[in-house]
Amino acid sequence: MSQIDIRSPKHCAKKGFNFNFFNKKLFKIFSTLTFSILSLILLIWFILHPVKPQFILQEINIYQLNFSSLHLLNSSIEITLETRNPNQKVGVYYDVLKTYASYKGQPITLQTSIPPFYQEQQNSNLISASLVGNGLPVAPSLRYDVGRDQASGKMILVLKIDGRIRWKIATWVSGRYRVNVNCVAILPLTPLNPAASLSSKQGTQCSTTL
């Protein structure tokens, strides 16, 4: 009588294809590749980590700042800004920049859009913008605040910039990042010289957040 050789699936797996071994090997290769790619991206980021652009308020001119009624303000302000890109290997696309002037926490001009531009590494640009508000609704207390500042001899305005920027590293361009800028301008005032036709050289470093 011949002997019947009966083998279990476990014995067959030893001679056949080992799926568990293949899956483990594939997982190990995939994990190593993923780790290498992430490490390379992290290394590039640390080497080329973009530094936020700098904004300097160089000059501000107030040509008009008066009230047509208790709560309606007329304003005309011209500003000169300097933008600087401190990065050595990263360019900056300024896609959207909108600016306006604020006084005592209230907007006193409408938003003005600055045309988009690209800034090379370690480069700077001068930007001029006219900020206007005709019959702009404001709180009635603002008129009192202007008079009080005239008596004290100075007025503090805040220039605000809201925008979107992109980074450029070689041929790679990032997605858009939001940027917010606040520039504080201190203007001299006297009772005999109301807030009109004022010119002030500033050179003030603005605060920038991304």
UniProtKB/TrEMBL annotation:
Q: Which UniProt keywords apply?
A: Membrane, Transmembrane, Transmembrane helix
Name a biological process GO annotation. Answer: defense response to other organism
Recorded hits in Pfam families, A to Z, give: LEA_2
Q: How does it sit in the membrane?
A: Single-pass membrane protein
Cellular location(s): Membrane
Q: Where do transmembrane segments lie in this chain?
A: 26-48
According to its record, what are the GO cellular component terms? plasmodesmatal endoplasmic reticulum
> Which top-rank group of organisms is this from?
Eukaryota
Residue ranges of domain Late embryogenesis abundant protein LEA-2 subgroup in the record: 80-183
What protein name is recorded for this chain?
Late embryogenesis abundant protein LEA-2 subgroup domain-containing protein
| Species the sequence originates in | Beta vulgaris subsp. vulgaris (Beet)
